[in-house]
Amino acid sequence: MATIAAIIASTHHPFYLRATTATGDDRPPFADEWQAKIEAFRETLTRARPDVLVMVGSDHFHQLWLDNMPQFLIGKAPFYDANYYNEEREFGLPRMKLRGHEDLSAHLLRGGIDAGFDLAFSNELRVDHSITCPIITLRPQADLPIVPVYTNIFAPPMPQPRRFAELGRAIRALVESWPSDQRVAIIGTGHLSLELGGPRQFGPHGPDPEFDRKAVGWIASSDLDAALAEVSLDSLWQPGNATHGFMDFMLMMGVAGDNAKADYADSLDLFHTMEAYFTWYPEGEAGGGEGGAGGAEGWAGGAEGWAGGAEGWAGGAEGWAGGAEGWAGGAEGWAGGAEGWAGGASRKAAP
Ligand SMILES: [Fe+2]
To answer: 170, 179, 284, 327 - which has most CB atoms within 10 Å?
Structure first.
C-alpha cells in the first residue's frame, strides 16, 4: 500500500514569489525573513521524498462559478494548466503546466464516493494559486504529478466545517489503502483571518490577530474538537469575509488525525494575512531519509519553465508578453498586435 510521506498545511500568500524575487528598492523589508522561513518549510517536504502530491485547495472563482459550483471536486486529468491572467498580472505568478496522476485520482474518486462523499470530478481543470503557491514554495521544480482536490470555501451555501474534517479523514484512509508503492504527500492550503475587497483588507496584519493566534494553536495540535466547538459557517464571517478558507485547514487537520501534534510549525505575521506552515510525518521524521533540493529540472529556464522557456511565461512562444500569442505586442495581442484591439492593422476606429 502507498505510504503517506508527509502531511502539510499552509497558507498560500500569492505575493511570495514577487516579494522574494524583487531586488534593490523593490524588495520589501520582510522578504529575507519570509524567504528563509519558506526555504526551511520546503525542506520538510524535500526530506519526505514524495512521488506524488495530493493538493487540497479552493478555486478563487477562476474556473468554478455560480453557474455550477461543486462543493468538493477532484481533478482526474493527465495534465493541469495552471494560473490565470489576473494572477500573472497582480501577483507575478507564472503560467505552469502540472502533470496529473490519473490512477490516484480514480482511486480517491471511487473510494470517496463509496465512503459517502458525492464528489464532483473534472477532466479539464485549470488550477489556480491555491494549488500553485504551495508548488512554488514547497516544490519549485514542479516535477511531481498532482491530484487536485478543490473545496468550496467561497460560495454559500458551503458544506459544514465538520464535513471538511470528515473529508480529510477519508482522504487519508483512501491514500493509505491505495495499492501502490508510491510515497504520497498530502498538501493543503487555506486561509487564516482574511478579508478580500473589504475595509480590513490591507492592514499591517491579518484582520483578526486573535483568531489567527487561536487558529495556529488548533492546527499545530490538530485540535479538531476545539476548532469545531468555536467555528461555524456563521462565525467565520467575523474574522474577515474570506475566513471560510480556514475550513481547508480543518480538512488538513482531519488528514493529520485528531490531536496529532505537528512535527513542524511556524508562522509569520505579515500584511494582509498571517502566514502559517505545518508538517506532520505519519511514519516518523526518520522515514523521510535524505532529501535533495534543486534538481536538474528546475523551474527556471527549463524547456517548459516559467521564465524564458519554450512555453514560458515571459518571452516564450506562447508567452504572456511579447510572444506570438502574447497579451501585449504579439501577433494576436489585444494591444498593438496585427489583430489587436487598439492600434492593430484591423482596428476599426483608427484615427
Ligand atoms: Fe486564497
So the answer is: 170
Alpha carbon of 124 to ligand 1 centroid (Å): 21
Give the number of other Cβ atoms within 10 Å of residue 40's Cβ. 12
- For residue 157, whether the previous peptide bond is cis, meaning omega lies within 30 degrees of 0, is yes
Q: How far is the CA of 145 from the centre of ligand 1 (A)?
A: 22
* pLDDT digit string, tens, across residues 63-78: 999 999 999 999 999 9
Residue 179 amino acid letter: P
Handedness of CA 74, 78, 80, 81 (dihedral sign): negative
Q: What is the pLDDT of residues 275-319, one digit of tens each?
A: 999 999 998 875 544 433 333 333 333 333 333 333 333 333 333
* Assigned C-alpha cell, 7: 502531511
Query: pTM of the predicted model, to two decimals?
Result: 0.82
**Cα 344 to averaged position of ligand 1 atoms, centre (Å):** 37
Residue 289 CA to ligand 1 center (angstroms) comes to 32
Could you give the CA distance from residue 302 to residue 48 in angstroms, rounded to a whole number? Answer: 24
Phi, psi of 115, deg, nearest 5: -85, 0
